[in-house]
């Protein structure tokens, strides 16, 4: 899916320069994503012609729940907020925690909200902030 759903830099691209640009824009964790796409450089046509490329603000049949950690090293929280705001029926559930995805640092509060969303379509209230079950490196 990585190669077929995205437009990737071509084989002749300067991947080291792209990694440097990514680091400058998004921090030290992001350049790894540049190198992951290098395997797609020879992919024909730069992605599937039927992939959806937007617009992202169209009304959908169901609301979309976006769950984001405030301390995600791979996807800055501001990006999650912007994505939820861009979606016509998006709602952001914030977890005041660390790591890439809530699965790596579980939150019962977030899990309960996700279950309600998946089972009944119920969204958490706007502005909901959940705490992780445990803080990494916390003093006990």
Provide the spatial order of strands within the biggest beta sheet: 1-2-3
Alpha plus pi helix count: 4
Distance between the termini: 42 Å
What Rg do the Cα atoms give? 18 Å
Outline: globular
Class computed from helices, strands and strand pairing: alpha/beta
Record the SSE blueprint:
Blueprint: H1 15-26, H2 31-37, E1 64-71, H3 77-86, E2 90-98, H4 108-120, E3 129-130
Parallel strand pairs: 1-2, 2-3
Characterise the protein shown here:
Helix content is 30%, strand content 14%. The chain has 140 residues and is an alpha/beta fold. It has a three-stranded parallel beta sheet with strand order 1-2-3. The longest helix is centred in the last third of the chain and has 13 residues, at 108-120. It starts with 14 loop residues before the first helix and ends in a 10-residue tail after the last strand. The mean pLDDT is 84.
Provide keyphrases for this structure.
3 strands, single chain, 140 residues, three-stranded parallel beta sheet, alpha/beta
Question: Can you describe this structure in just a few lines?
Answer:
The protein has helices at 15-26, 31-37, 77-86, 108-120; strands spanning 64-71, 90-98, 129-130. By secondary structure, it is an alpha/beta fold. The longest helix is centred in the C-terminal third of the chain and has 13 residues, at 108-120.
